[in-house]
Every structure is written in C-alpha cells, then in structure tokens.
Amino acid sequence: MKKRFFILFCFLLVIYIIFVIFGRHIETILTFPGMYISSDSNNIQSFKKIYDIKEVTFDSYEDNTGSGIFINNDEDYTILFYLPNGVNISNFISDIAWFGNQGYNVAAMDYPGYGKSQGWPSEENVYKSTQNFYNYLINDKNISSENIIVGGYSIGSAPAINIAEKNEVKSLFLISPFNSRNGMSEFIYGIPIQKYLFLEDSFKNYKKIQKVTVPTLIMHGKQDKVVPWEMGKEILENSGADNKKFLLLEEYDHNTMFFALEDVFDKYINDFILHEDKEDEFVVY
Questions:
Q1: Rounded CA gap, 134 and 167, in Å?
Q2: Nearest-angstrom CA–CA distance, 275 and 269
Q3: Beta strands 216-221; 244-249: pairing state
Q4: Would you report the helix, strand and coil content of the chain in percent, each value rounded to 5?
Q5: So what's the pLDDT on residue 262?
Q6: How much is the pLDDT for 54?
Q7: How far is CA 248 from CA 52, 153, 222, 260, 283, in A?
Q8: What pLDDT does 196 receive?
C-alpha cells in the first residue's frame, strides 16, 4: 500500500514539475487555440470582389513578419480591430468587413502564429506585434492617430487596451473583455492555477485600463458563459476615462455578440464613438 502511494506521489510530483517548467507554454496554447486553425485564402479572395481589401505585411517582432488586412472605404475614421482567439482573418473576414459597411475604414491583423503571421503568441510578442501593426497604419498608411478607433473582442480586448494606454487614439470599444489570465483561471477552475505554478498574472486588463483616458465603450452579453459580464463591468469601473459607457445586452452570449452589434451599432456605438454621447453610463438593452 505504501509503495503504491509512493509511486502515485512521485507520478503526481513529476506532472506538477512538468507543469511548472512548461506552464507558460501550456497557458499560451490554451489562450490562443486559433493558431492551429488554417488560413483560407480563398475566403479572403471572395470578399475582395466586394470590398477594397488589401492584404498587408508588417514587421511583427524580432525577425517575424505579421499579416493583416486594410479595407479602404475613403472614410475619415479607421477602426483598428483585434480579433477573438478562436479565429484568424480568413474565417472572420465577414465580421471584419461588416464594420466597413457602417462607414469606416477597417484594419485587422493575425496574432503571431495565426493565419499567415509568423511567431509565437506570448503576451510580450502579442503586445509587440499589435503595437507594430498600429505603427504600420500610422507610418505606412498615413492614418492620423486621432482618427483611429480601437476595438477588441474577447482576447482582443488585451491588445486593444494596451494600444489605447500607450498611444493616441480617438476612442476605444471592447466586446466581452476579460480582466486578466488569473481572473479567467479562477472563473473556469475555481482557483488562479497560475499562482501554484509560480506564474505571474498576465494580460492584466483590469490594471492597464486605469491609464486609458479616451472615451471607452464596453459591450457584454448577460448570457456570456465564457467571459462573465461582471468582468466587463470591472473593466468599466477601473477605467481612467471620464467618458465611459457599459452596454449590457440581456439576450446575447459570448459568441453571438456580432449579431447584437447589428441592433445597437447606430444607436449606441456610432453616437458614442463619433459624438461622445455622455448619457447613461450603464445601459441595459
């Protein structure tokens, strides 16, 4: 009996050591599963028949090349949109192009390791790559920073907040944002597992948002079982913006938020982004 217990203990100890050594690597795989989804160039090509879509490359980080798209509608404002973690540009192109139909130019990129982008999506690499894509829009596309509206969906809220914290932009909007990796771990597993693997918290949106002062709009579905809406409310409460709004969509969950956008874009998003509507900080729709 003691021998079996000792063998079991040794086995569990080895597993724990493996998780400690490779914990950050495993965490990255769980956070960015979309890097294992192949890119469908034919899908992008089909949308080029409808929209003025330009596939672009930029210096991502170190010697890696990043891949993105730019939809030029000759509009005054450009939406720089960071995607959720389960997709790449090719299989999210219809949703990206939807913003163009609302009267904006649109820019989006694939995270390192996603689609045609090279590299590995660690927190550092994601922040570097997404910052360099912003720089590309400013320097190569000659887009004025004051005309850039930054948006992020789910994991995309992290680079969106980081860009708004460190750069000049017109405004920020977030769809289903999370508070941090530790916060997500505690929500899913009941405990912040990273602490027991000696990993520091990362993608700390709740902290970075404190330095964001541009008008900030947060949208969250009340039925969201992936990222609870209370996390979005926490981001709002921590925001350093004087002008901020939280839109709680009662009938929508994490994966149906783009259907919600069709209902609320003109009434809430356009008014807030372009006219900085300051009425009703907390809205239930």
A1: 9
A2: 10
A3: parallel
A4: 50, 20, 35
A5: 79
A6: 95
A7: 33, 15, 6, 11, 6
A8: 75
Q: How far apart are CA 32 and CA 265, in angstroms?
A: 28
Q: What are the average pLDDT values for consecutive 10-residue runs of the chain, which has 285 residues?
A: 65 62 78 90 88 94 96 95 96 93 95 97 97 97 96 97 97 96 91 81 97 95 96 97 92 91 77 65 65
Separation CA 98–CA 113 (nearest Å): 25
Classify 64 as helix, strand or coil: strand
| Tokens 């008008």 -> residue | 215
Amino acid in position 59:
D
Beta-carbon contacts of residue 145 (< 8 Å; ≥ 6 apart): 138, 167, 168, 169
Q: What angle is formed at CA 157 by the lines to CA 154 and CA 163, rounded to 5 degrees?
A: 160
Output the pLDDT for position 134: 98
pLDDT in the model for residue 194? 81
- Copy the structure tokens of residue 228: 């609870």
CB atoms within 10 A of CB 52: 12
CA neighbor of 58 nearest in space, from 124, 96, 113, 110: 110
Question: What pLDDT was estimated at residue 20?
Answer: 59
Strand ranges, E, within the chain: 53-61, 64-71, 78-82, 105-109, 148-153, 171-175, 216-221, 244-249, 282-284
Question: CA–CA distance from 117 to each of 38, 91, 110, 165 (Å)?
Answer: 11, 15, 6, 24
Is the domain spanning 2-284 CATH 3.40.50.1820? The answer is yes
* CB burial of residue 50 (10 Å; 0-12, 13-18, 19+): exposed
